[in-house]
Amino acid sequence: MTPFFAMSLLFGLAFGQTASLCAPSEYIIHVEKRECAYCLAINTTICAGFCMTRDSNGKKLLLKSALSQNVCTYKEMLYQTALIPGCPHHTIPYYSYPVAVSCKCGKCNTDYSDCVHEKVRTNYCTKPQKLCSI
């Protein structure tokens, strides 16, 4: 193994451990309303990935605010609105959803993010499906 290759390999491993892999990822949201005839499958982007964190051994000596770990969360986002087809006139047929423009590793903001990982969650339609590509 050449010295250049060995140094490149070591640099890659060291950089790979500190680099964030938090980025916008494609995701499909399934939306339906009881009154409407269809379920809407919406293509959007969410923030997903790995953020480097460190767990302190001195947990009893630190404040709880110092123990929170970084998560992959929104840096910039915008909202899109989709029309759910097959809704009666008395029902509001619109659904607004976030679209991740850019992501960062940071503290989870409960104003716009669910900071708890659910063990069992289904994302599917119980009604006929329509695809929305906005």
TrEMBL record:
Mind telling me which InterPro entries this protein's record contains?
A: Cystine-knot_cytokine, Glyco_hormone_CN, Gonadotropin_bsu, Gonadotropin_bsu_CS
Q: Where are the transmembrane segments?
A: none
Q: Where located?
A: Secreted
Return the PROSITE patterns for the record. GLYCO_HORMONE_BETA_1, GLYCO_HORMONE_BETA_2
Q: Which residues form the Glycoprotein hormone subunit beta domain?
A: 21-125
> Which domain of life, per UniProt?
Eukaryota
Q: Where is the signal peptide?
A: 1-16
Q: Which UniProt keywords apply?
A: Disulfide bond, Glycoprotein, Hormone, Secreted, Signal
User: How is this protein annotated for GO cellular component?
Assistant: cytoplasm; extracellular space
GO annotations under biological process? G protein-coupled receptor signaling pathway
Q: Which GO terms describe its molecular function?
A: hormone activity
Quaternary organization: Heterodimer of a common alpha chain and a unique beta chain which confers biological specificity to thyrotropin, lutropin, follitropin and gonadotropin.
* Family per similarity comment: Belongs to the glycoprotein hormones subunit beta family.
Protein name stated in the entry: Thyrotropin subunit beta
Question: Which species is listed as the source?
Answer: Chionis minor
Q: What is the lineage of its organism?
A: Eukaryota, Metazoa, Chordata, Craniata, Vertebrata
Q: Which gene encodes it?
A: Tshb
